[in-house]
Amino acid sequence: MEVLVEHLGDVQFEIKAGQHTIFSDQPVESGGHDEGMTPPDLLLASLGSCAGFYAAMYLRKHKLATEGTVVRVHADKLKNPARLDNFRIDIDVPVGLSEQHKVGVEEAVHHCLIHNTLLHPRQISIAVKSSELLEHTA
Hints:
Structural class: alpha+beta
Shape: elongated
Oligomer: single chain
Number of helices: 3
CATH topology of the largest domain: GMP Synthetase, Chain A, domain 3
CATH class of the largest domain: Alpha Beta
Low-confidence stretches: none
Number of domains: 2
């Protein structure tokens, strides 16, 4: 999997994945133009849409209504180091569910790739490359 993130100027970025493009920005008070979601928003959106996918798959499998399912993701912003923590996922489904189906939806969401990535973080390597050749003088 790969996404391409290109700096557009100020604090704006164009993000491409396959044939899809979205934009990331910062609020005006943080020096941005507020023309796209912030990186933390994108992380919460990724978790929420993944959770929603698994919830909808469970509901569909059990022939329960999926239209109108709403997922809300909350997280606390912490410092030292700056990070998000205490993620909470609330899933509102359009039909009354039995206790068995509520548990089933919750168990389904535990299969979400993003959920599991956040629970079991992996190593992140960073490589800084320059596209210009620098001349060195001895």
